[in-house]
Amino acid sequence: MVLFTRSTRSIELTESGRYFFRKATDLLNDFYAIKRSIDTISQGIEARVRICINQLLYTPKHTARLLQVLKKQFPTCQITVTTEVYNGVWDAIINNQANIAIGAPDTLLDGGGIDYTEIGAIRWAFAIAPDHPLAFVPEPIAESQLRLYPNIMVEDTAHTINKKVGWLLHGQESILVPDFNTKCQCQILGEGIGFLPDYMVREAMTQSLLVTRQIHNPRQDSRMLLATQHSATGQVTQWIKKQFAPNGILTGIYQDLLHREN
């Protein structure tokens, strides 16, 4: 096997030599990467962390900012982010599909092995298109009027535990959509009614795309929890828990989505 050819003034790699050089370089890089990972694991930093975010708190901007601060703090940790709806968040952490849940809904399930702490609440606003017929009826709007129009709903993504049903009146038609952005757009187009997170409504109202109305029995705030597996004691998990405390970095990132009691 010839890896290089030699002349009086230079050495030139053959095709086999170039292949050997590339593979040897890859092996060395892998070796150093493994060494760095072993060093960080020995310091209590997880090799991998899986984070499930409630879709109510999932936006590209907030998730990118979350990843930015995590990778700056823990550059060797592999981070995976998924999103679920309602009890789908609990489903993910109970079935070991996630180590950390940001925004687990306040529907605590029986069973040990999970630690949780409150990080704030989602406030809801009943929102409709400015030209929707309900925009012109007296407030608070009666349920008999609300039933005349379909409710745009996001379906719970839980598979192994009971699904949660959002606000829906008895006898009212429902239209199921995959996410809250789609729900918001449907309501902007006047295709239905329902409650939206107030941060979504505020943004749409600045462009005169939605209006809010008062109804009987408005939807109560949804308490959001940070949930972690009890066995997750690594530095990344502990840092996330610490930074969701008052004045923490992650509390600051999500402050425009979550309401916290002073």
Automatic annotation (TrEMBL):
Residues 43-232 form the LysR substrate-binding domain. The keyword Transcription regulation applies. InterPro entries: LysR_subst-bd. It comes from the Bacteria. The keyword Transcription applies. Keywords: Transcription, Transcription regulation. Pfam families: LysR_substrate (PF03466). Signal peptide: none annotated. Belongs to the LysR transcriptional regulatory family. This is LysR family transcriptional regulator. It comes from Escherichia coli.
